[in-house]
């Protein structure tokens, strides 16, 4: 899998060279030893993005001007470099775009906060959904970013002079409809696959359902335009955009009941993991085998169900798992171990 990885100037790793990270790797070390930093380095190396911060400057080692992550993944060389003034994406020695760089080998993160986001408010569930679709569909990221750029401009106009905000309606409806359409498409795929996995694990039916801020009849665009006209007077009063995909979310149903209310903690943690595993299987269908990164994610369920859940990914995908004690990985001892702290300059 990862034949080599050279980390320079990243967090607490000033100059570190890892000769090999096998397809099943457990990183073990006490708190503060750099487990999450190493997992973050892997994620940033392959995607150019951090799961801990929007500002990559936060990841530069103290006293350094930038960082460099370079290595061999599936026989291809990837090099991501960062300084406050530049991002470098190089693949096999050639400079490429961010999209070309991260397309072929996606990364899926399994984080403790996944469960909090998924069972918290609408914003958290919306974030979980969008981040999964980002991995599945690179075009969605561009449409999503442009929609929110238009949304910010429209909201600025609503605050300054509400009656002039109409000039942004056409773009808001066009881009927002594309976001909604993509969400419907991928949520349906995820729901079908998730239902199969969850039924195998618990023998019950789960379903993902979109919750939109306006009723969709006929086309999404026509429905969005009609609904936007219906709330215009209220928007003039409140000075912000009241409906659209920026306020939509989804819910999880268990045998037609609200999953958040009726599920146990073990079921909630299991479904959080299964949701990402579902995305992994959809990526595999696209011939894009993802790398799974688990940051100290433990399973709160009985031993038999642990074994069943682990079987969904244990031998099917490459993965790296961080733990703070040797005996904390519940699966078979078919993995290799990296012990922290590593020697570093």
From the structure above, extract its key features.
5-stranded parallel β-sheet, Rossmann fold, 11 helices, single chain, 6-stranded antiparallel β-sheet, 345 residues, alpha/beta, globular, 43% helix
Computed Rg: 22 Å
Helix content: 40-55%
CATH homologous superfamily designation of the largest domain: RecF/RecN/SMC, N-terminal domain
Tell me the distance between the termini. Answer: 26 Å
What is the topology, as strand order, of the major beta sheet?
Answer: 2-1-4-5-6-7
CATH topology of the largest domain: Glutathione S-transferase Yfyf (Class Pi), Chain A, domain 2
What count of structural domains?
Answer: 2
Major sheet description: 6 strands, antiparallel
Order of helices and strands: EEEHEEEEHEHHHHEHHEEHHEHEE
Low-confidence stretches: none
By helix and strand content, what is the structural category?
alpha/beta
What's the total helix number?
11
* SS elements, strand count: 14
Name of the CATH first level of the largest domain? Mainly Alpha
Which CATH architecture of the largest domain is right? Up-down Bundle
Mass-distribution shape: globular
Please report which band the strand proportion falls in: under 5%, 5-15%, 15-25%, 25-35%, 35-45% or over 45%: 15-25%
Average pLDDT for all residues:
93
Briefly, what is this?
43% of the residues lie in helices and 22% in strands. With 345 residues, the protein is α/β, with parallel strands linked by helices.
């Amino acid at each position: 899998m990862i034949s080599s990885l050279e980390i320079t100037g990243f967090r607490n790793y000033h100059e570190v060279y890892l000769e090999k990270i096998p397809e099943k790797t457990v990183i073990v070390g006490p708190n503060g030893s750099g487990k999450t930093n190493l997992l973050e380095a892997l994620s940033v190396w392959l995607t150019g993005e951090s799961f801990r911060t929007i500002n990559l400057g936060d990841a530069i080692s103290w006293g350094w001007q930038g960082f460099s992550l370079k290595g061999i993944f599936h026989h291809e060389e990837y090099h991501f470099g960062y300084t406050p003034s530049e991002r470098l994406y190089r693949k096999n020695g050639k400079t490429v775009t961010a999209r070309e760089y991260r397309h072929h080998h996606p990364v899926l993160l399994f984080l403790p906060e996944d469960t909090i986001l998924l069972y918290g408010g609408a914003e958290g569930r919306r974030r979980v959904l969008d981040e999964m679709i980002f991995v599945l569909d690179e075009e969605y990221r561009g449409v999503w970013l442009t929609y929110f750029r238009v949304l910010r401009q429209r909201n600025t106009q609503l605050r300054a002079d509400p009656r002039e905000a109409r000039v942004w309606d056409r773009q808001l409806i066009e881009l927002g409809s594309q976001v909604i359409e993509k969400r419907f498409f991928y949520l349906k795929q995820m729901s079908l696959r998730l239902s199969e996995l969850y039924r195998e694990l618990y023998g019950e039916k789960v379903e993902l359902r979109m919750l939109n801020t306006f009723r969709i009849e006929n086309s999404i665009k026509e429905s969005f335009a009609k609904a936007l006209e219906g709330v215009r007077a209220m928007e003039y009063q409140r000075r912000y955009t009241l409906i659209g995909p920026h306020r939509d979310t989804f819910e999880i149903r268990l045998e037609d009941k609200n999953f958040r209310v009726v599920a146990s903690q073990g079921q909630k943690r299991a479904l959080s993991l299964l949701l990402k595993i579902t995305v992994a299987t959809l990526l595999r269908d696209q011939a894009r085998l993802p790398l799974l990164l688990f940051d100290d994610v433990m399973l709160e369920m009985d031993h038999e169900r642990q074994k069943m859940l682990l079987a969904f990914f244990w031998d099917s995908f490459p993965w790296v798992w961080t733990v703070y004690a040797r005996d904390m990985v519940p699966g078979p001892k078919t993995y290799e171990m990296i012990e922290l702290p590593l020697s570093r300059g």
